[in-house]
Amino acid sequence: MPEYYLDCIFAIDDHQFAYKDMIKNMKILVLSATAWDNNNSFGNSFSNIFEGIKDIEIANIYCMNGNPQNNTVNRYFQISEKSLIANLKNSQKPSGHEFQLSNKDIVSVVDEKIYNYARKKRWMVLFWARDFIWKIGRWKSKELSQFLSDFNPDILFMPIYYSSYMNDIACYIKKYTNKPMVGYISDDNYTLRQFSMSPLYWIDRLYKRRKVKNTVDLCEYLYVISDIQKREYEKCFKKRCKLLFKGAKFENMPHYTSENKYIKFVYTGNIGSGRYKQLAAIGQAISKINKDKKAAELDIYTLTPMSSKMKRALDIPNSINIKGGISSEQVKKVQAEADVLVHVESFDLKSRLAVHQSFSTKLVDYMAMAKCIFAAGPSDVASMDCLIKNDAAITATNKAEIEVKLNELVRNPDLINEYGVKAWEYGKRNHQIDKIQNSLYNYLKGLVNEGSTN
Taking CA atoms, which of 93, 103, 153, 233 is between 20 and 30 Å from 245? Predict the structure, then answer.
């Protein structure tokens, strides 16, 4: 690869460092549990972070059945439970292979049913069974080694999962390549600030948090998703943490107009972890508002497998419409046509503690559309904490407030435009994608060049 020299300046912790750029295209290797598909949470977020950055090449190793769908990644390597089992039965069958987009991975109906069943039940034994397959599986294959050697990454960018095998693979890749590694964590996968009455949960937590720490210890630094997470993890790991958000282009603020007969509230995304209860509370409040005359409705678009309990809770006629899952492109259209976009976090103790560090990436999409955000959830969850402190949404921090705030919004629809503007202005200050990508590129490039001079 031809070399060229380019003087660059970048800022780290308010200090200026100069360096010589020695590599034309920076090669970044990203490990993921799922396929890099813009229609799933991982693919949507990571395409947002990396798409459009010049002078980089990305390879993705992913550990599940499925097909990538994005305009960001150059090469893929796939390992899955299915291929590991096949390899255990017949060692001539590879446990992993370089995935070609021309050869689509056919996910059977049976595979989908098993995966959805596991997502619904959340039984620990199902997760341990999967971990056992990866423990005995021969994923350290000659095919994986060849892929790593052939791509020869300059830097490793590793999402850090609450998973024993994903952390084992990340540590193996680091050891094999001996390249600088940066971690990215968007959920609380480490602290003991959780709630469960099950001893199996705590056995699992104590074991997997050791795996998380093993990976973090190998990282040069750690990207995190919220101020709360930054404060807590810098104390936990004694490791430098940096904020990395999803971004958008905040150039010309969209002007709010509506052709809806009544206020259309829209929720798109996961309704698990108790979120469906808050959506039901919103639906009940809207039902009361609509008692004399229809003034509002809530449309819910979700891919979350729904239990009978969820279906009963959300079965509120003349208030809630369950629409099912839609593609990422359709999501944008639906959100653009909404009057108010909804964000919810659970008030249940267990769910609240599980997400207290997390910042919902879809909030950035809401902000970029200059949409009024109605958010319901506890104030100590990172997403709610951010919206409240910056007055970037109409917020309800307890169940009683939901009805009060919705009544206020229906009586004063001018709030829709007012809070749409506030959301957009906050997004422009903090989530401008060009600034986010420039900062990320400079930090990663700095590590690569630092390594090349050692």
Answer: 153
